[in-house]
Amino acid sequence: MELNRRHLLTASALLLARPSMGLPREVDSAGAKPLILCWNENPYGPSPKARAVIAATISESCRYPDEDIRELTTLLARENGIPADHLVLGTGSGELLRAMGALCARDRGEIVAAQPTYTELTEYAHRAGATLKFVPVDKDLRHDLDAMRAAVSERTRVVYLCNPNNPTGTALPSEAIDAFVAAMPQHVTVVIDEAYMDFVDLPGVRSALPLVTQGRRVVVLRTFSKIHGMAGIRVGYGIAGPDLITELTGIVMTSPNIFAMRAARASLLDPDFRAQCFKKIRASRTRITTELARLGRRYAVPQGNFVFFDTGMPLEAFSDSMKARNILVGRLFPPYDTWCRITIGTEPEVATFLQALNEVLKSGITRTSADRAGNRNAARDRYPV
Fold first, then answer.
1. CA distance 146 to 6
2. Residue 5 class from Cβ within 10 Å (0-12 exposed, 13-18 middle, 19+ buried)?
3. For the segment 284-295, what is each residue's pLDDT rounded down to a tens digit?
4. Which residues contact 240 (CB under 8 A, 6 or more apart)?
5. Are 98 and 88 in contact (CB under 8 A)?
6. Which of 75, 223, 247, 298 could form a disulfide with 236 if both were Cys (CB 3.0 to 4.6 A apart)?
């Protein structure tokens, strides 16, 4: 036992000392924190009511959250107009995506998904033994539903639709999804990830929840990570028929925590705050796309809290130029190797990003002109790394 304790303490110290994985959140040499525009987070949340509840719950964190789980389930069921047995909670919707991946992989089934799209379901399922079949998005960077329908086979267990899609931000109208689901064979479950549905302003784009109440084999996933501003608190939920909910409930790995349950309830009861977030983010989204249009840069029609646009240079070069200005932007989404996903921050953050964008693009144009003139030095410097 003595040796095990020592090993545990040593490992814990190392974990605390090492930097976090993924894109760095370290301070720069001047001590300023970087502007983080790479994670699709809501910079305005959580709501004041949720924050107050979290603080008040600290003294009760010794208690199990069973009653809180029941209360949140009841509230969500009432908010969505469904029976409680049509709903399952998860530690973020990501846990439920992984649970669907695990269900699909049990008989080494096949998953059909767009490319690019959010990959938590597909990557987890692939590691568990499932087969992946990716279908490129169409010319408008939307799901190509005709091609996805054609890709479905007898081995297909899940079709994944992220609507609005991450990273493109494009959204499918409800009529198109309804027709797509109606054409699916009985052995296929359509998973519709609506993490960004609260940011939609396009007419005709609505939640697929009615498909569940119609008895279709559909799972609708929602999260508190985006409009609710609770990405670090981890709570999401799935809506489906009772049989699918039973399958999902039987395979989820964790139990929600008391802070997440109470904060989610408080946030649901604060619609004014969410409305303010939507208003600010939509205005900043328009500000970004207006500037991209002025600069002649192509972008996908955004319906999330981010914008996907063509930088005109390798993404690594663009990312490095932004990082040199202390701004972190989204990762590479193959095959769009010149495209960048930028999260919509606060209004001052958007202003800082747009100023940096103009500087970087202007530098790129200057170098391109020099290349055409045959300046080899400028050619070598065109895409600095």
1. 58
2. exposed
3. 999 999 999 999
4. 86, 88, 212, 218, 219, 220, 248
5. no
6. 223
